Amino acid sequence: MEDTEELEQLPHTVWVTWEAEYNLGYIRLQEIAEGQAAIQKIVPYPRGGGEVILDFSKKGVLLGIEFVGIRAMPPSMIPKNVREQG
To answer: Per the domain annotation, does 44 fall within a domain?
Structure first.
């Protein structure tokens, strides 16, 4: 089986959430059971104002990406009304 055939069979759903109250965004790449995110790699945002946290399973599978602080989030994740205020 070629690589492209394998990719066509993979699910392509991701879930994106943003919590204004906590200034957090999250991209979930698959369903995540409680305790499944066993390893976290924290990356400071280069220009300050937040950080990016990569959540991995015990086996090293990337489960999700958390954005802490509005500056660290991709603009498309930030609700339009919040972008307009900034």
So the answer is: yes
Of 60, 81, 76, the residue nearest 14 (C-alpha) = 76
Let me know if residue 16 belongs to a domain. yes
Whether residue 3 is contained in a domain is answered as: no
The answer to whether 32 and 55 are in contact (CB under 8 A) is yes
**Residue range(s) defining the domain that contains residue 69:** 10-85
Instruction: Report which DSSP code applies to 46.
Output: T
Quote the CA–CA distance of 14 and 52 in Å, as a whole number. 17
* pLDDT digit string (tens) for the chain, length 86 residues: 344 555 566 666 788 888 878 888 889 988 888 889 999 999 887 777 788 999 999 999 999 999 887 666 677 766 676 666 55
Residue 53 located in a structural domain: yes
